[in-house]
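Notes from hallway chat w/ T.B., transcribed later so I don't forget. T.B. wanted the structure written out for a chain they're using in a teaching module, and asked if we could keep both sequence and structure tokens in one place. Agreed to drop them here.
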Amino acid sequence: MCELFAMQSRAPATVRLSLAEFARHGGLDGPHKDGWGVGWYEDGDVRLVKEPHAASDSACLQFLQQNPFRSTAVISHIRHATQGRRTLANTQPFVREMGAHVHLFAHNGDLDGVRLRAALPSGMHHPVGETDSEYAFCALLEMLRPLWLPPGPPPLAERLALVARFAAVLRPLGPANFLYADGDAVFAHGHRRTHADGMHPPGLHVLCRRCAGEPESEKFTSMGLQIDSGAVPQEVVLFASVPLTRGEPWRALSEGELLVARGGRIEAPRDPQRRL
């Protein structure tokens, strides 16, 4: 299956990514060479870089490693194709504008496309590629669209309720781990993932870090990732398919758990057992 990663921080941080290292760390050698992508927020917009081939062979990714970027929100994805051809249009993350904000989405799983289209209309949002993941993103935007008219972030509680309802529809259709950002917050939904002993939770992990502003304490280094906030007080939330470090309190999301990160903190957890 695919590999997901997201960062949401209180203050802009310099981020250096090695997606090839992510792939090896998550056990994604071999067939997981069908594409990679990373999107990050900058000045109210999203810089999106993606390619439909292996991260390990990418001169573009090498450039990003040598020229790290600064952001408060990052989403990345390494693809193992299950639906759709190996093309740029089918490579994640996906990005769309709605309500004068840029929305970013990445999904890890394999959904029943026929049942997905029957359960969730995409409305005025149309996929460019052929994947179940992009169609799911279009359907999510259609659910959220009434909240974003007029433009501007709606109340977080209203957004969370609809994203939770969307996630509840996805779960019976197949593995439904996803990351979604709307320019204000990052939503992370954990479900099931392929492990050595079969398909089961956890599908996503979370780590929260708070630093006091001492230069050395602001650096986070792991296999495939380096974050440097400089000498400023910082709070960071990290989401990853597989924990990126040892000896830190990564927590596995329970099956169907939905978290929201904003301002470098987990702001709104959602109990999957709560009736919607």
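Follow-up for T.B.: The radius of gyration is 17 Å. Might be a good example for the class.
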